[in-house]
Write a structure and sequence with these properties.
binds flavin mononucleotide; 5-stranded antiparallel β-sheet; mainly beta; 124 residues
């Protein structure tokens, strides 16, 4: 489970920061491909599942491979399917920059928020 940030619009680039202690990061690093799934406000349970070390994250989740073969969650609000183009060392994390191969908006809704250790909804 990662937070993703927009880096560049042209070309479209995003980044996430992988903890060096992550057991999933080495596999993402080897494949060079990954998808950032933006959960909707009903996605708290999925978020908690993906934030658990050692969890069988895809056992009960509906997903399909995106253009890079990375998993796109069926219920995600939106996704960015990416290929890694750069890695930068950053303390106990690695900053991973990805080129967006496909960007998708899957359904209407609002994103799940995480703030000060808790989950919340986006109200405007
Ligand atoms: C809201 C939230 C955001 C997180 N963001 C990151 C992140 O940006 N990078 C990271 O390495 N771990 C992040 N984590 C922690 C990871 O989810 C957790 O350490 C990881 O899933 C452990 O499993 P792994 O060894 O398979 O990576 C976050 C957790 C939560 C709850």
């Amino acid at each position: 489970m990662q937070l993703v940030h927009l880096v560049s619009l042209d070309p479209p680039l995003v980044l996430f920061c992988a903890a060096k202690a992550s057991t999933t990061w080495p596999r993402i690093r080897t494949s060079g491909k990954w998808a950032a799934n933006i959960l909707d406000e009903d996605g708290e349970e999925v978020c908690r599942l993906f934030a658990q070390k050692g969890a069988d994250r895809f056992a009960r989740i509906a997903y399909a491979p995106g253009r890079t073969g990375s998993p796109i969650l069926e219920d995600a609000l939106a996704f960015a399917d990416c290929e890694t183009i750069a890695e930068h060392d950053a303390g106990d994390h690695v900053i991973v920059v990805g080129r967006v191969i496909e960007l998708g908006y899957q359904h209407e809704g609002k994103p799940l928020l995480f703030y000060r250790g808790g989950y919340g909804r986006y109200e405007i």
